[in-house]
Design a protein that fits this description.
Bound molecules: glutathione
Structural class: alpha+beta
Number of strands: 4
Low-confidence stretches: none
CATH architecture of the largest domain: Up-down Bundle
Catalytic activity: RX + glutathione = an S-substituted glutathione + a halide anion + H(+)
InterPro entries: Glutathione-S-Trfase_C-like, Glutathione-S-Trfase_C_sf, Glutathione_S-Trfase, Glutathione_S-Trfase_N, GST_Omega/HSP26, Omega/Tau-like, Thioredoxin-like_sf
Strand content: 5-15%
Oligomer: single chain
Strand order of the largest sheet: 2-1-3-4
CATH topology of the largest domain: Glutathione S-transferase Yfyf (Class Pi), Chain A, domain 2
Keywords: Transferase
Enzyme class: transferase
GO molecular function: glutathione transferase activity
Helix content: 55-70%
Number of helices: 9
Largest sheet: 4 strands, mixed
Length: about 220
């Protein structure tokens, strides 16, 4: 099967991964074009209004921003990843945004200049996961039970950061959060989540963290 969908990507970007996971879950073939965000090509600057990845090219149109891209895939492709119930759908959309706020917290964590700043950011991040521990469906394996959803596509890339953080130290951010821990393990096993990044992702992320010249860089 051929596809006219192209995902404009960067190797580490968790927002790109959301779209790649949704496409894989839907069984939709797509091309990937990877760009260097530190040296953005002219064609990319012209078609990306915010200068960010992901972009999804469909026909001659470049869609930008991961949340609308996910919604477009829901509207245009098979195998729904949103629940049908309107309240549940709205709640899932809200937790996709919550996932973006968690990613902001992760960015603040790895950019913290010193240990005290790092610990403050770690505590703020843990608050968000404590909230998730309350919200999660205890049965699992996914956010809302048996069906993989866009919230799962959002959090697979979130937990992937922790696989690398765990190699650098014991920061305790997810300690004792049993439902979150089980969710993390289940997402790590999901084929679409595994295949959303290249095999050298951990080394690539570690190099990225080293270059931040922040407190965590000093642990590498
Ligand atoms: N709100 C955007 C966030 C996307 C984003 O932050 N992408 C980053 C890479 S992960 C980016 O392209 N940054 C531009 C840059 O580094 O210049 C979305 O959901 O798509």
């Amino acid at each position: 099967m051929t596809s006219d969908l192209t995902l404009v990507s960067h190797s580490l970007c968790p927002y790109v991964q959301r779209a790649a996971i949704a496409l894989a879950e839907k069984g939709v073939p797509f091309e990937r074009v990877t760009i260097d965000l530190s040296d953005k090509p002219d064609w990319f600057r012209k078609v990306s209004p915010l200068g960010k990845v992901p972009l999804l090219k469909t026909g001659e149109t470049y869609l930008f921003e991961s949340a609308p891209i996910l919604e477009y895939l829901e509207d245009s492709q098979p195998r729904p990843l949103h629940p049908r119930d309107p309240v549940a759908r709205a709640r899932h959309r809200a937790y996709i945004e919550f996932g973006s706020q968690v990613l902001n917290g992760i960015g603040a964590l790895y950019d913290a200049a010193d240990r005290q700043g790092f610990e403050e950011k770690a505590a703020a991040l843990r608050e968000k996961f404590l909230h998730l521990e309350q919200e999660l469906d205890g049965e699992g394996p996914f956010f809302s039970g048996p069906d993989f959803s866009l919230v799962d596509a959002t959090f697979g890339p979130v937990f992937r950061y922790f696989d690398v953080f765990d190699r650098l130290g014991r920061f305790g951010i997810l300690d004792g959060l049993e439902k979150v821990g089980r969710w993390r393990d289940n997402l790590a096993k999901r084929r679409s989540v595994v295949e959303a990044v290249a095999a050298d992702y951990p080394a690539d992320l570690t190099r990225f963290l080293k270059r931040r010249q922040s407190w965590i860089s000093g642990l590498i």
